[in-house]
Amino acid sequence: MSPSKPTSVEVRLPSRMGYEKVAMSAAAAVAKLVGFRDERIEDLKTAVAEACINAIEHGNRLNEKLSVGVVLSAGEDALEVKVIDDGKGIKKEPAKPDIDRKMHGEEDPRGMGMFLIQALVDEAEWVAGSDGKSSYVRLVIRLDKDAE
């Protein structure tokens, strides 16, 4: 089932670890309705979870008075996800981590989330809010019609 015009679903999450699973489920449900293959849905779920965890932990700094917004917009051939927090955003594009150094304990094992997100979706963009808050990450994953 492909929507003839973009369809949007919005979810508000508390800034508490574990609630990223709600966003994962919502993203998976919308992707399934649009016709994504299971493999792409798994990629999407992982990317959305990572983006939500970053928003909860780094954007909102685990402040439970703040929430994380997730907006899923389904078009005919792609799904766009915006994960919005009250943080300032990042100042530059993420650097590619040195996976070998991380695996050998020479670097902090954390810090792979943004790299992972970029590897799983077709587009990833981090946008700092113009007011010094309300930053977001925008993810786009395209429907692969030829793989069916």
Account of the protein in words:
The longest helix is centred in the first third of the chain and has 22 residues. The mean pLDDT is 85. Strands 1-2-3-5-4 form a 5-stranded antiparallel β-sheet, with helices on one face. It has 4 helices and 5 strands; from the N terminus they run βααββααββ. The relative contact order is 0.20. The radius of gyration is 15 Å and the shape is globular. Helices cover 34% and strands 24% of the residues. The protein is an alpha+beta fold and 148 residues long. The chain has one domain: 2-Layer Sandwich (Heat Shock Protein 90), CATH 3.30.565.
List the helices and strands and how they pair.
Layout: E1 7-14, H1 20-34, H2 38-59, E2 67-74, E3 78-84, H3 99-103, H4 113-120, E4 123-127, E5 136-142
Antiparallel strand pairs: 1-2, 2-3, 3-5, 4-5
Helix pairs in contact: 1-2, 2-4
Summed up, the domain count is: 1
Q: Which outline best applies?
A: globular
- The number of E-state strands comes to 5
Described by strand count, sense and barrel closure, the largest sheet is: 5 strands, antiparallel
Order of helices and strands: EHHEEHHEE
List the total number of helices: 4
Cα end-to-end separation? 14 Å
CA-atom Rg in angstroms: 15 Å
Supply the helix-strand structural class: alpha+beta
